[in-house]
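Our collaborator T.R. sent over the components below with a one-line note: 'Predict the complex.' Nothing else. No constraints on interfaces, no templates requested, no preferences about which chain binds where. So this is a plain run: every listed entity goes in together, and whatever single assembly comes back becomes the starting point for the next discussion.
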Amino acid sequence: MNLSDVKDAFPILKQLENGQPLVYLDSGATAQTPVSVIDTIARYYREENANVHRGVYGLSERATDAYEGARSKVRRFLNAASDKEIIFVRGTTEAINLVAQTWGRRHLKAGDEVVITEMEHHSNIVPWQLLREELGIKLVVVPMTDDGEIRLADFEACLTSKTQLVSVVHMSNALGTINPVADMVQAAKKVGAKVLLDGAQAVPHMSVDVRALDCDFYAFSGHKLYGPTGIGVLYGKEALLDAMPPYQAGGDMIYSVTFDKTEYNVLPYKFEAGTPNISGAIGLGAAIDFVESIGLDTIAAYEHELLTYATRQLQTIDGLRIIGTAPNKGGVISFIVEGTHPHDMATLMDQDGIALRASHHCAMPVMQHFDVPATLRASFGVYNTHEDIDRLVAAVEEARTMLV
Ligand SMILES: Cc1ncc(COP(=O)(O)O)c(CNc2co[nH]c2=O)c1O
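Returned assembly:
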């Protein structure tokens, strides 16, 4: 699909917001859904809906083929070695919690160190704090610079012989910073640590190859990749997943059950208890088809160009301060306007049809670092245009004039 045709693929973007054409700049929270994904999910419920894996009738077998076909698409999308390494979860948050509650509780003990960074989303902070309370592990936080960058030297300085796990964000949702995760993985391996990468923001914006990265776990959410909510993926190296205890218990994750003993199912089903989000997985598969029809490299280049244009245009506004100016960024711009509160700005900008986030973005330590209560955040999707940026800049100017 050509980028010039992309916007037409999103029905929601045709609507007016407060009498103005909608300019959606909150894809970092959730991306919009192309008609190909909507139609795929509708078709599943019209023609294929049945429970998976256990039916011995055609409809269930077709639903199973569609569900497992989506898993294979994810495998190829991440360049994983096997479908066994692709676990469907609700989203990035559940993926990280699954690793913390299974691999973490099994392998970590008092005094072991888990390394995260100062720019993590709360879903990659709090699960490890729960383990700190339960097991007495030590949480080591890599500081970021005032540009919102993690310097590799600062990361390496946090690694010790006690480092058992590094869990870091690939691309920051609050700043847009893209971290040097390939180098971070190599440095972590030198001290024998496992590595989990939080790919929630990276996967929609760039090509991800988990084998080239050599990470042990990789997590992302379908709804940020133009797919439905309620579906996400945990990638894990097969040997690690095989050795981990189940996360949740019930149907489908078992091979046999007696009151004396239960044998668990094989991968990936050991980690997929109960009826899965069948339509969500199939919708995620359609979302992967959509982004691959454009090309991740094409998406990355286009969004970089948008980011450059938006940064230049926003910087012309008096009193506007961009939060997060790392040299390597994805399609996210956080900013504040002196003398205003982000919530007031966003509320006024909504009157101009501009949808952007005013929040701490579930990254409160980032806000503390920059000494701000929140930021305005414009986060881009494949459907955004230069005209959207011009509308954004005009709305910021208008809101600023009304508030300052
Ligand atoms: C880097 C990062 N990690 C984890 C998550 C959690 O993903 P979920 O489990 O699908 O919710 C998010 C969601 N980020 C945002 C959700 O809303 N605004 C955001 O910036 C994120 O941006």
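Summary for T.R.: The chain has 14 helices and 17 strands.
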